[in-house]
Amino acid sequence: MLNTLHQWLAKIPLSEQWIFTLLLFPFVWLVKEIWLYAHFKSHPDWDLEHKRRALVVSRNVSLIAILLGLLMVWGSQIQTFALSMVALAAATVVATKELIMCLSGSLLRFVTRQYSVGDYIEIAHIRGRVVDINLFNTLMMQIVDNPLIGHLSGRTVSFPNSLLLSQTVHRDHILGQYVVHTFEIPVPIHLDSDAIVPKLHAVLDEWCAPYTPEIIQYFEAVQVQQLFFTPAARTRINRVPHDDKTYKLVVRFAAPITQRLDIQQAVLDEFIRLQYRLLLETQHNPYHE
C-alpha cells in the first residue's frame, strides 16, 4: 500500500515534500476537531472555562504537531538554510565589526554621559576639547602635546567611538564652570624646596583667593543636590620624591575653568624666576647647602 501511495504521489506534478505539507494542515485540523467533539460529548456538564481550556490545549498541541511535521518533512532544507544564514551572519559581523563597536561606544557615551561638546577630555593619550560628536566618531580640537601647556594647538583630531569600550576617558571639568586642576613641576634635587614652596603658595593664594568662597559654596551645593563627592577647594603643593636628580612639586588648586591655565602659567613663571635665582646662588656659593 505504501508503494502504491508513493507511485500515486509521484504522478502529481509537485514534490512529495510539498504534498505532505499541504496535507499536513487539514489532517491536523481534522484530528483536532474530532478530538474536541469527542471530548465535549463525553463531558456535557463542563462549563465555559473548562471548554475554553480544552480548546487552548488542543490548539497548542496542533501547533506543535504542525511544527514537528514540517521539521520532519523539510529537515534537510532547513538545516542547509540555517547553515547559510549562520555563515551570512558571521560574515556580516566580521565585515561590520568596527561599525558595530562604534555604535556601541556611542550608545555607551549617551547612556553614561561621559562627555559632551565643550568638554576637555583625554583618551588613548589624545588630549583636547570636544567640538563634534556623531554616531561613529568624536572630533576634538587638540591640546599642545606638552602636559604643562593646556592651550589648543589649532589642529583637530578624531577618534572612533569604539575606543570608549576599551579605553579610559579622563574628563577635566565634571563640576560645571569650575575645575580642580593638578600639574607637576620637576625640580633639581639640590634646590631647597623650603625656598620655593612658600612663594608658589603665595602666587596661588593671590590668584585663587577671590574665587575660593564661591567655589566652596558651589561644591557644597553640588554634593547635596547630586549626591556627588566633591574635592576640597583649598590650594595644595605637595613634595614628591622622583629620582636621584629631581623631585617633583605637585600643585593643586580649584578655579574657574577659564582661569586655570592663567593660574598655572603664573605659578610656572614664579618657579622659573625662583629657580634662576637659586641656581645663581649655588654657582656663587658651591658649598651652599
UniProtKB/TrEMBL annotation:
Q: What is this protein called?
A: Transporter, small conductance mechanosensitive ion channel MscS family protein
Q: Which Pfam families match?
A: MS_channel_2nd (PF00924)
What keywords are assigned to this protein? Membrane, Transmembrane, Transmembrane helix
Q: Which InterPro entries match?
A: LSM_dom_sf, MscS_beta-dom_sf, MscS_channel_2nd
> Could you read off the lineage of the organism from its UniProt record?
Bacteria, Pseudomonadati, Pseudomonadota, Betaproteobacteria, Neisseriales
* Location(s) in or outside the cell: Membrane
What Gene3D superfamilies does the annotation carry?
Answer: 2.30.30.60
**Which molecular function terms from Gene Ontology are attached?**
mechanosensitive monoatomic ion channel activity
Q: Name one GO cellular component term.
A: membrane
**The Mechanosensitive ion channel MscS domain covers which part of the protein?**
103-169
Parts of the chain that traverse the membrane: 18-35, 56-75
- Tell me where it mainly resides: membrane
